[in-house]
Amino acid sequence: MQVISIYQVDAFASRLFAGNPAAVMLMERFLDDSLLQNIAAENNLAETAFLVPDGERYRLRWFTPTTEVPLCGHATLASAAVVMERLEPGRTEVVFESASGRLPVRRTQTGYVMDFPSRRCIATAPPPNLAAALGAVPVEVLTDTFNYIAVLKDAQTVRALSPDIAAIARMDRAGVVVTAPGDASYDFVSRYFAPAKGIPEDPVTGGAHCALTPYWAARLNKTALFAYQASRRGGELVCRLVDGRVELEGACVFYLEGKVAI
User: Fold this and answer.
1) Burial of 184 (0-12, 13-18, 19+ CB in 10 A)
2) What is the rounded CA–CA span in Å between residue 192 and residue 149?
3) pLDDT tens digits, residue range 77-105?
4) Are 138 and 163 spatial neighbours (Cβ–Cβ below 8 Å)?
5) pLDDT tens digits, residue range 97-152?
6) In the chain, N or C terminus with fewer CB closer than 10 Å?
7) Integer Cα distance of 46 and 24 in angstroms
């Protein structure tokens, strides 16, 4: 039997029950993939992050309840909070080695800043059933290889969507990002639906903002943007385009800390 530390953290949130919850589990080594997947399914959160110390750095993998993914923003943010607040208090930066390469995260006065690869968006013909699945007609459709990105006319349309999740699950991409120019103080808003990955709607999605940041930076002619993901829980992100990469900044709140016996 192994005893593994587990933390549940609300990422991209400044209060409990907001942002995107992630489980972070510290291990001496990665267990078999099938066991990691079972643990993630048991946790039943959008993402479980598995951390393995490797010198000054940590190796990091992410699993949804149904599959391993190549990049996860909110679970990386949560992992950084675990390292800098619980495992090595006072540490101001950490580097994660992952399937998406080297991911540095540094502490700020109000949270943490992640340095992620950007995703290039390419205009594409709308899939025949996209508008029907969303219940709204996009003004533009793009793809970043992983997802379709549907640009809608305004923020209220994004907020009011009640899409056909089963229809989205049948599409030939992992998920659908919807986005529009922002309202209130936000430069843009978004939502993300990924039922094919076991996530009907993700509360706050770092990976999606790796594509949304360069897209909106070009449209708005600015490299620093304030974004809102308009899920039920909701989450705020500061997004910056820096030397062709994307910086995502947000805060974290600890919800649960304990042990798992496997």
Assistant:
1) exposed
2) 9
3) 999 999 999 999 989 999 999 999 999 99
4) no
5) 999 999 999 999 999 999 999 999 999 999 999 999 999 999 999 999 899 999 99
6) N
7) 12
Catalytically annotated residues? 47
- Residue 59: which of 92, 23, 21, 30 has the closest Cα? 30
CA 99, CA 212: separation in Å to the nearest integer? Answer: 21
Does this model's pTM top 0.90? My answer is yes
166: left (phi > 0), else alpha (psi -120 to 50), else beta?
alpha
* Phi, psi (deg, nearest 5) at residue 126: -60, 135
Contact present, 192 and 208 (Cβ < 8 Å): yes
